[in-house]
Design goal:
This protein is of the alpha/beta class. The chain is 40% helix and 19% strand.
Length: 481
């Protein structure tokens, strides 16, 4: 059985010096903006959007005030409240980047109510530090896009994309913290983008349902949940299923999802003579998707690359093992031979067919199928959104300390009325005999004075002793040692 806690998974927190009482105590009361290209309701949404939604929901439950800023697509409102957080949609595919910068600057300099930014990079990040200087920023990377820029764009756009993701990101985010959704992505961020600072591995959570909700599995049924785009390699999966049929296997395939390649993939299935062996469902609701996955023997993820195999973990949560390729992201999500099986990516459809056949044979054995199903459930249970947010809290603490090093005037603010005090990510706070004492970092003495005046209090430079010891009874983290 998989040990979901002790498995040698490279969490890579690299934050031994950061002591947190938990994500709830760190994020409670914070005013957070989460930036992502699309939202979970977008027709082309995928793992990155599921990550952003899961993080926003969990942050809101922890007591944070969360605004999710994203592009607006046809037929949706510009503002929406969802699961405790606010969704704000402005701009299109490229305009969202300009709109996000303006919005961050407005929150930072006009409203002055921005404590933390979580900047989700979809190839090119939002460059949040340029628009919200002095605010801690966590840059979340799902996977490195350097090869995709080369493959899908001409020389000029490819160069712009690679420089933006690499050199510009290193320069702009030099005081930010980085979070990667898998150990593979962390290696890519360090090796390909040249980012040497601590990178917190922050895997996606999963909305687990448990094996008890799994329906009766259809014999030799394979399910693939994926957006139908080239790098998902659904065509290779069709070739593999065709080989299984030629070998006399009763295997059937259900493909859940839509995308620009659907018509070509349907034509390819027809050319292979798969007929009723393959079903394309198109886009379905989450409930329908879960019912289809829960009744499959195995799930397949033939992608050539992923940041993290979210669909693998979602299937595992229902006790369904997966087959994928031994490539970054997928190999992080599947424990080979325990929660699923990995095929050689160099072996093409033949290697994938061999692995699918081995998996189907294992699932035909009731005792072995039960063992693998239980192992998958235990493995998936270790990936919760609460754990994801705990790791983001570690990254945010790093960003807070790095940001404070630049806004480098240590100040003490004394306020007599605690009800008027607004805490941000730079502060350590203690109650004292005369109200509230805040040890903070300010960009200027005047800034600290203006803030203190707003609390009906006073400010003064902090002493060396106060900087060393911190205020009494510290209740939040954020000031460098």
């Amino acid at each position: 059985m998989v040990d979901s806690v002790a498995r040698n998974y490279e969490l890579g927190l690299d934050v031994a010096s950061v002591e947190l009482e938990g994500a709830q105590s760190f994020f409670a009361g914070r005013r957070i903006v989460v930036l992502n290209w699309r939202d979970v309701g977008h027709p082309s949404s995928g793992g990155a959007e599921a990550f952003a939604d899961g993080v926003c929901r969990t942050l809101a439950r922890s007591g944070a005030s969360v605004e999710f800023f994203t592009a607006r697509h046809h037929g949706v409102a510009a503002r929406e409240e969802r699961d405790g957080y606010v969704v704000r949609r402005i701009g299109g595919t490229f305009g969202v980047y300009i709109a996000a910068g303006i919005h961050l600057a407005w929150r930072r300099f006009v409203r002055r109510d921005l404590d933390i930014v979580i900047d989700c990079a979809n190839g090119i990040p939002f460059f949040a530090p340029l628009f919200a200087p002095g605010v801690p920023v966590v840059c979340v990377v799902h996977h490195v896009h350097q090869e995709q820029f080369r493959e899908h764009f001409g020389p000029v756009l490819s160069f712009v994309g690679r420089v933006s993701e690499g050199l510009l990101t290193r320069l702009v985010y030099r005081r930010a913290a980085f979070a990667a959704v898998s150990a593979s992505t962390r290696r890519g961020v360090a090796d390909q983008l040249g980012i040497a600072r601590p990178i917190v591995v922050t895997p996606n959570g999963a909305d687990s349902f448990g094996a008890a909700f799994r329906g009766p599995a259809a014999a030799a049924r394979i399910v693939c949940v994926a957006r139908l785009v080239p790098h998902k390699q659904v065509g290779v999966l069709l070739d593999a299923v065709s080989l299984l049929v030629e070998r006399g296997s009763p295997a059937t395939l259900v493909i859940v999802g839509d995308g620009p390649d659907r018509a070509e993939l349907e034509a390819h299935a027809a050319r292979l003579g798969l007929g009723a062996r393959v079903c394309f469902t198109g886009h379905v609701s989450a409930v329908e998707r879960d019912d289809i996955v829960g009744r499959a023997s195995i799930a397949a993820l033939p992608s050539s690359r992923e940041g993290w195999g979210l669909t693998v973990i979602e299937a595992a949560a229902m006790g369904v093992p997966s087959v994928g390729l031994r490539v970054p992201g997928v190999s992080d999500a599947i424990v080979d031979g325990q929660t699923g099986w990995l095929a050689d990516p160099e072996g093409g459809a033949g290697a994938l067919a061999d692995t699918l056949e081995r998996a189907l044979d294992a699932c035909a054995d009731p005792e072995l199928a039960s063992w693998v199903s239980r192992a998958a459930c235990v493995w998936a249970a270790s990936f919760t959104w609460e754990h994801t947010v705990e790791r983001l809290a570690a990254a945010a603490a790093i960003a807070s300390r790095r940001t404070s090093e630049r806004t480098c005037i240590p100040m003490v603010i004394c306020a007599s009325d605690p009800a008027r005090v607004r805490i941000d990510a730079r502060d350590e706070v203690a109650r004292c005999d005369h109200g509230v004492q805040i040890l903070t970092w300010a960009s200027s003495v005047a800034e600290a004075g203006q803030r203190a005046a707003g609390y009906g209090g006073s400010s003064r430079p902090a002493t060396d002793a106060e900087m060393h010891a911190g205020p009494r009874c510290v209740t939040c983290v954020g000031v460098p040692d």
